[in-house]
Design a protein that fits this description.
globular, about 150 residues, 4 helices, six-stranded mixed sheet, two-stranded antiparallel sheet, alpha+beta
Length: about 150
């Protein structure tokens, strides 16, 4: 990821404020501001991250209730409550809103309900949305307003 912008910022030590696994796509925030990254990633700040998720089975009421209550994963770890809403009539494409970040969290949460994730795309972090004009692999700097919005997530 950082390689995409390294030539444009040769003296800055950029790092991702959050990660996506190799099968996921979408918004990745690169920064050299450790305090900002901490605020975005810290579970204490409950920063919203929104995803569009394509499932291999339709969303059910049990899934919605489970996400709202906080899914207990198969290893016994209980996730913070999360939102999940259908985006398509067939319930196969949903929007998930997290305020926590745990390794493969969305995939593991749906797995509790025997649902597989076919695609996962991060749409926003802290109210800052992925720029729809950007193609995969493209980037842009945040606007002053977007930086301010992220700085006020506490």
């Amino acid at each position: 990821m950082v390689d995409l912008v390294a030539a444009d910022f040769p003296r800055r030590e950029l790092f991702p404020a959050g990660r996506l696994d190799k099968t996921s796509t979408g918004f990745v925030l690169l920064t050299d501001d450790g305090a900002l990254a901490h605020d975005i990633l810290s579970p204490a700040h409950h920063v919203e991250k929104q995803y569009v998720v394509t499932l291999d089975t339709p969303l059910t009421d049990a899934m919605r209730r489970g996400f709202a209550a906080g899914v207990t994963l198969t290893d016994g770890e209980t996730m913070a409550p999360a939102g999940v809403e259908p985006l398509t009539g067939d319930g196969l494409t949903v929007q998930v809103t997290l305020r926590q970040g745990v390794y493969h969290q969305i995939k593991r949460m749906f797995g509790v309900f025997d649902a597989g994730v076919n695609a996962l795309h991060r749409e926003s972090i802290g109210g800052v949305a992925l720029d729809p004009a950007l193609a995969p692999g493209q980037w842009r700097e945040l606007t002053a307003e977007e930086v301010e919005r992220l700085q006020n997530v506490k």
